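During the no-cost extension, the postdoctoral fellow (Dr. R.K.) reprocessed legacy sequence entries with the updated structure-token encoder. One reprocessed record is reproduced below for audit purposes.
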Amino acid sequence: MAKERSIIHVHLDKPYLGETDWYFGSVSAIYDTIPTEVIGVKAKSTWGRFKGNTYRSRFATIKRGTLHTKKSKRGRF
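Re-encoded structure tokens follow.
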């Protein structure tokens, strides 16, 4: 059976470091990479606020989704 993992897509209205689309494994990881001023909302405000898996801040759209992966036998003997 395939594994399912949570993924968070951040789309910025204005590019940061030349990119407008960023992908993360957690809300905390977003703020380790992108400053609060660029996103327009603090990390504490985004936790638990996804309506229909989407949250809109002043400068960004944050979407939570599922990353589907194939089960691997790599590393097993």
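The helical segments are 27-33, 36-39, 43-46. The chain has a mean pLDDT of 86. The remaining legacy entries will be reprocessed before the final report is submitted.
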